[in-house]
């Protein structure tokens, strides 16, 4: 699987903070805290990697991965 294209845009009218497209594209709303952004990015990537997983399975894996990375001080920073 090639790395997905990630674009940022406000997704309020979609009532979502992230969207995964089957064309290997992730859209993410930039108006999130750093930890929420990390969780959303992980969540959408999991949808692309494991399309057969239920939403419950995705959320469970997202939380585990996000918490692990957060405790290891991974953060989104502006450059």
Please characterize this protein's 3D structure.
There is one protein chain. Helices cover 42% and strands 15% of the residues. The chain is an alpha+beta fold and 79 residues long. Strands 1-3-2 form a three-stranded mixed beta sheet, covered by helices on one side.
Give short descriptive properties of this protein:
79 residues, alpha+beta, 3-stranded mixed sheet, 3 strands
Largest sheet: 3 strands, mixed
Mean pLDDT: 93
The backbone outline, from C-alpha atoms, is globular
Low-pLDDT sequence parts: none
Strand content: 15-25%
Order of helices and strands: EEEHH
Compute the separation of the termini in Å.
28 Å
Q: What is the count of DSSP helices, taking H or I runs of 4+ residues? A: 2
For the secondary structure, the number of strands is: 3
Structural class: alpha+beta
Helix content: 40-55%
Radius of gyration: 12 Å
Question: What would a concise description of this structure say?
Answer:
The chain is of the alpha+beta class and 79 residues long. It contains 2 helices and 3 strands, in the order βββαα. Helix 1 crosses helix 2.
Which SSEs are present, and which pair or pack?
Elements: E1 5-8, E2 18-21, E3 25-28, H1 34-49, H2 55-71
Parallel strand pairs: 1-3
Antiparallel strand pairs: 2-3
Helix pairs in contact: 1-2
